Amino acid sequence: MKKILFLILCSIIAISLPGCGADTKEEYFETTLFFEEDGKITDVIVESFDTQKYSEDGLRTFFNEKISDYNSTNIGKGEVELKKLDISEGKAKATLLFDSCDTYNEFYNSTAYYGSINDAYDKGLISETVLKKRGSTQTITKNDLMGMQKEDIIIVSEVVRINSPKKIEYTSANVDVIDERNARVSSESAGLAYIVVK
Question: Is the pLDDT of residue 32 over 60?
């Protein structure tokens, strides 16, 4: 959804001068969701951007208008903020802050969840699945998962990189672990992706 949105935005923007700048999460060079323990999500969208054809100002205006429309119709329910928009070396990097997973899901019509496993189950997000332990061949089933009381779970429906506030313990088969706090949903992923953290 985000990539499609970004490409649509780029296709309607007029020529302008490129901009540049450093992002606070500058070490990430691909679209990444940063989940925070307080429930907030920082969404760093990274896409190719032709500065000879498209405008940074136009892209910024479009994002601001979309965010303003959302915030004004969801007063007291959710808030989105465009933290940064940088264009450099043929890449556009937009950093959006969401006050909750619910806000993120409504804004993108997507699925992103971070919290307890029991709450995820109550929301209908836990399906029959086999998870593999990070760095091991050990696996667990849905029944094992539902018995975990100290762990939290991240669930997403997009092909995206994930940054977790806690150490990754288990992942579904459509997730590739990068390190103890970073993982990437496979480009061939089908269905929801699960990451158990502790």
Answer: yes
Q: How far apart are CA 145 and CA 118, in angstroms?
A: 9
Strands 168-172 and 175-179, bridge-based pairing = unpaired
**Contact predicate 159/177, CB 8 Å:** no
Provide, for the chain, the percentages of residues in helix, strand and coil under a 3-state DSSP scheme, each rounded to the nearest 5.
25, 35, 45
| Residue 6 DSSP SS3 | helix
DSSP secondary structure code for residue 49 in this structure:
-
Positive/negative CA dihedral, 198, 43, 29, 6: positive
Residues contacting 144, CB < 8 A, separation 6+? none
Map tokens 């998962």 to a residue. Answer: 145
Tens digit of each residue's pLDDT (9 = 90 or more) over 43-66:
999 988 887 777 888 889 989 999
pLDDT score, position 4: 53
Cα 124 from Cα 127, distance rounded (Å) = 8
Distance (Å, whole) CA 53 – CA 190? 34
Question: CA–CA separation, 195 vs 161, rounded Å?
Answer: 12
C-alpha 134/C-alpha 167 separation (Å) is 10
Tell me the average pLDDT across 152-167: 96
